Predict the 3D structure of the following.
Amino acid sequence: MRIIIVLVLSNLFMKVPFFDTLLGKDISEALSIGVTQVTAMDNLYMILEPKVDFFGKSIGQIGVETSEDNTINSITIFFPEIVDTSYYKIISEYYGYTSNILVVDEILQEESSEKTNDENFTSNIKERITSLKKGSIEHKEIDHVLWDKDDFQIQLHFGHNNNRMYVRFANKIYN
Amino acid sequence: MKKLIYSVLLIFLFVFQSCQNENLSEDQEISTVAADITDQEPNNFELQSWTIDDIPSLKENIEYSIQNSSISWGQSANSENIVLDSQGILQVLDSIGNYSYAVRMYVPNSPYNVFYNVVVKEDNHGNFKQPIVLRYEVDESYYPTYSSSDRKEAPFRGDIAYYNLGSFASSSISGKEAAPVPCGSISVAGTSGNNSNGSSGSGSGSGSGGGSTSTEGDNYTNISTPSYVYVAIDSAPSTTPAPTPSVEVGIGSFGQFGTDGGGGDSGCTEGKVQSGACKYLSNDCPEEELVFPINEPGNPIFFVNCGSFEFYKPPGSAVTAAAVDNMEETFHSYRLVNGRVDTKEVYVKLNRVYFTLPSWRRNGEASNITAEAVTAANRAVELWYLTNFDATKEDVNDTWIKSLKAAMKFRGGQISYVEPFKMKNAGIYQTSLLTTGDCD
């Protein structure tokens, strides 16, 4: 009996993620999460010092992308650290398990160049296109996991290649 | 056959050495460590990852040492108190049957090149030894290599200070990097190249900061585990283990272990024994010989660190400024083509740039503000590119510069390729764990 009460209470107090519910809503509904910074790009906002977490993980920053009418197209939550792949299991307990686990396959194209822009900033630039294939969560070169829900998608990106771990909610993840 | 004879001989030597341990001289002890290293071929290690709930006796042992302190279990750092990571606990089983556990410990406001582990040894009789805090400080100049490389190529190099967990807990201050006087410190030279044969990066160092000392028994050697050592992901041995990035395994002899006939193996006499675990009541310094995995915090690392931006202002200048060389970031995007998902990565390295902020900003404050600005700008470009797969790499470069300018402007500053006044030095672009750091 005591165990049941504890379980009920822990469910009551569990922070249910709400980011997916913000998709399609007005940007104003997301701005109260933290301090908003307007970016250089149209329809893109960064929320600093967010007051929420995601399945027990603290969040570094939240990026919100809107359409022209200020409705939210995507929400991306950046974590301040790489989390263990066991975090996939925690998320799956809520959103369901998925077979869309994408790992690095082969390099399709690579090129590099140097550039000096109009303001005389000089850069070295490299570009690489890599194909992905389905794999296992234990794969060393896992790129991301995709949950395809009825009306939105969730991407858990592991950031091994570009030092950024994030979860992204959007109607459509891929271009 | 030769191998078999050699193994039997080594086992005999080990048993003989154990019996004679109390009479060992210091030189003999160091050579014993070397012999153990020869024994401890990397493929004799078994490395696994657990959550703290999987190992209740370890939890009980650690909690005994941190009782009445503000240290708590969690899954990530916070800015107020020390957190022990309940996930990703590394366990190494050596060939003698001893286990060592390394728990990540997050200490608020630690420098970007510092991380902590709580290490506990469980001997082959199931007795837990005194929990030790290890503070790893990576050499600053080596940090960019360390943070971006596999451990086989870039083993730890820097200082390892060690503490008794109980005294560390009692002297920790909320919101600050705890700085009790360490029991000792070992300076590790590190080695480049493949360390899988157990090549040594050892030595008794001169100690680092905070009045640390090096004791006669201190010793450290590393073995970077090869890719055929596996880490189980789901708190249980994986049936289809996959290779993971190498984990560096250290072999350390801390304090006067073995040099005075005392040491870790006799430590239980100071406390009481309960459920097979030693309960240390005193704040004595650890004396222990350990094989321990180095449990690095989230890696790779995310935040641009304020240490990248060394602001200064000459007399009369309206601005304080910092020069930075080789700022580099990678951005990526995705596309779906005929059912196949492709990812495009664009790497951009900016040559020297200058950041400026009004001169009324303190230099340290300016460093903090710039680190926040650059981190936010990087995130914004990442987001933008996620929905712009067809953007060229030159577009990504221009958008990054545009985003950096906007982020600095938002904070009352600028980024420019023009030197605002004669600058002495340019900083090295650094990223950092958990936060942008505090340079003020």
Remarks:
- Chain B touches chain A through 80 residues (CB under 8 Å).
- DSSP finds seven helices and 22 strands in chain B.
- The mean pLDDT of chain B is 69.
